[in-house]
Amino acid sequence: MLPRFSLSWRGPLLALVAGLASSAALADTLSVEGAHVRAVPPVSTTTAAFMQLHNAGDADRALVAASTPAARVAELHNHVDVDGVMQMRQVEMIPVPSGEGAQLAPGGYHLMLIDLVEPLHEGDEVALSLTFDDGQTLEVAAPVRRIETMGHGMSEEMPEGKAEGMSHAGH
Ligand SMILES: [Cu+2]
């Protein structure tokens, strides 16, 4: 399905041209707000990045990949409630619906930064590269911040949270 766009529609012969034009136009419709990376103790080689994704376009999009020079692996993750226990799962994509966008926040969707190249310090900026299902990429600078995990009874002395710490044993 082609997204709607502001060119006049002249029929199927223009479908390809229209598709190209719309992907160019969409470059302005996705944006990122409040990106940040959770500060972790120097011994930790894993952390998470959070942000709000906005989609002002007419087409639903999805975040399909992420990368950063700060970590050797960046995965898309979600938390799911399995019999009352929050578990992290890697997901293929994070939906970014038109108008709604997506919230990457503790306890929900997040980017998992695995095998950090060097310890991150509060105030550092981590460059994140986000790739969407239409091929476009957004570059974001995400400051490293302390985050108090909400809803798990976790203090900031255990910044990864119990559920994350447990499922990271498998990485
Ligand atoms: Cu995770």
Automatic annotation (TrEMBL):
Residues 1-27 form the signal peptide. InterPro entries: LpqE-like (IPR007410), Lxx211020-like (IPR058248), PCuAC_sf (IPR036182). Keywords: Signal. It comes from the Bacteria. It holds the Pfam family PCuAC. The keyword Signal applies. This is Copper chaperone PCu(A)C. It comes from Halomonas alimentaria.
